[in-house]
């Protein structure tokens, strides 16, 4: 998952010298941080080092990374009138060109060894950060907008979706070979709010990105949707226009497959905390996971991001176990 580097000592060393978002704006550092896990582990893909909150920054909001607290908006959206402070038209190349440069540099540096994945946060997740001003256990401020100001909420979600569409297309133009959309805060919504305020934009992003890629004669890359804790929406996500649906660790593989069907690839879903287990135990858990999913139309992954205090050797054990058990299952099936 996207926090791939932060448990590595070399990552912390590279990052120590400057501010988090200054690092995000340095194509050279982003390239280095993307490549670090690949030097250690035989991973099957790279995901560009960046952050989902570069999109609110492109809209004109200030976000700082506060040690021990995480991302913090200096002036979150409080009233509907605050939407007027946002850029209504965003030139993604001007505002987010540093991400595109990082992708191009990394793609060249990878020399075709593994594909490079680009990503963005999804509209509801970004909206929730912009209103909450940072992380939240309830998302009460952001959800109150959905109930109190539905029209303004849709206006903000539409604005975000339009920027995300251009941003993702730009990532492919820069060299990204797959795209992932993170609806990390889907679990706070529940079925009805998700249907109204998340799913339409998730669908629209997939459709519009593919349409623009065709128009611009760019490669039609696979797209992945990861909506954390949205078990209630798996059937809808299966038909939302994405080739891959990512799963968190709170759903059984068989249940997910039954809801998603056979035509969409699944990605996931080992509990990240399983990497605290002894290496042999990690191997057992991976074996069980692969047997449950099968090796076809399936990408082995964690069910969410790695934590900073995880032992790199245990990450290595996970990767090795995935490869070993996949080979074994394929050989005997």
UniProtKB/TrEMBL annotation:
Reaction catalysed by this enzyme: uroporphyrinogen III + 4 H(+) = coproporphyrinogen III + 4 CO2; uroporphyrinogen I + 4 H(+) = coproporphyrinogen I + 4 CO2
Location(s) in or outside the cell: Cytoplasm, Cytosol
One cellular component term from this protein's GO annotations in UniProt: cytosol
HAMAP family the record matches: URO_D
Gene that this sequence comes from: UROD
NCBIfam families given in the database record: hemE
Pathway info: Porphyrin-containing compound metabolism; protoporphyrin-IX biosynthesis; coproporphyrinogen-III from 5-aminolevulinate: step 4/4
GO molecular function list: uroporphyrinogen decarboxylase activity
Record-given protein name: Uroporphyrinogen decarboxylase
Function text: Catalyzes the sequential decarboxylation of the four acetate side chains of uroporphyrinogen to form coproporphyrinogen and participates in the fifth step in the heme biosynthetic pathway. Isomer I or isomer III of uroporphyrinogen may serve as substrate, but only coproporphyrinogen III can ultimately be converted to heme. In vitro also decarboxylates pentacarboxylate porphyrinogen I.
Enzyme class at the top of the EC tree: lyase
